[in-house]
Amino acid sequence: MNAIYGTWPWYISGFLIALVMFMLIYFGKSFGMSSNLRTLCTIGGAGKFSDFFRFDWKTQRWNLMVVLGAMIGGFIAYNYLSDGSGVNLNPETVAELQAINIEAPDGKLAPESLFTLEDPKMIALLLVGGLLIGFGTRYAGGCTSGHAISGLSNLQLPSLIAVIGFFIGGLVMSWILLPHIF
User: For 21-41, how does the pLDDT look when each residue is reduced to its tens digit (9 = 90+)?
Assistant: First the structure.
C-alpha cells in the first residue's frame, strides 16, 4: 500500500493528543512514558533489589497499552500514512549544524553521526546523556511527555517548573555545550 499523506499537520496530532488527555482525565489517569520503565523493571523482578520497584504493577497495565499503542501507531503512521519524505529542517538549522561539523539529517529525526557507536566520544556522550536523562526523569518525578502533556493539562505547578527546566537544559545543550563537543 502506498502512503497517501506527507508529514502530519500539527493540528491533527495536537487534536489527537488533546483527545487522549481528556480521556485520561475523565478516567482519573495520568500519562507518562517513563513510568513504564519502572513497571517493566518491576515485572522483571527489580523489586527484589529496591523498594522503589515494589508496587502492584498490574494497576499500570493500561499505561503499558499506551506504549504498545504508540509503537503500533508510529509504525502505521510511518509506513502507511506518510510519503516517506521525513522531517524537513529549516535551511538555517542545517547550516548551523554544518557549522559545528554535523551533517544534515536528510529527512531523518537526527543526523546519523550523532548515534554512531564507532566513535568513543559519541559513546561517552550517549552514556552520559542517558544517565542524566534517567536521573532527571526520576528527580523531576516524570519525563517530558508526562509533565508537558499530562501535568500541564492538569495545571500542575511542578510540571510547569519541570517543563521550563527541560527547555533550559535543551537550550544550554544545543547552544552552549554541543558546539564545544564537536
Answer: 888 888 888 777 888 888 888
Is residue 78 predicted with pLDDT exceeding 90? no
Q: What is the largest CA-CA distance in the chain?
A: 52
Whether the Cβ atoms of residue 12 and residue 125 lie closer than 8 Å to each other: no
Instruction: Extract the C-alpha cell encoding 10.
Output: 500539527
C-alpha cell at position 98? 554544518
For the whole model, what pTM was predicted? 0.68
Domain edges within the chain: 1-86, 117-182
Q: Can you list the alpha helix ranges (DSSP code H) found in 27-101?
A: 34-43, 61-80, 91-99
CA–chain centroid gap for 18, Å, is 17
CA gyration radius, the chain = 19
DSSP state of 109: S
Q: Please list, in sequence order, all residues whose beta carbon lies within 8 angstroms of the beta carbon of residue 121, skipping any fewer than 6 positions away.
A: 181
| Residue 4: per-residue pLDDT | 45
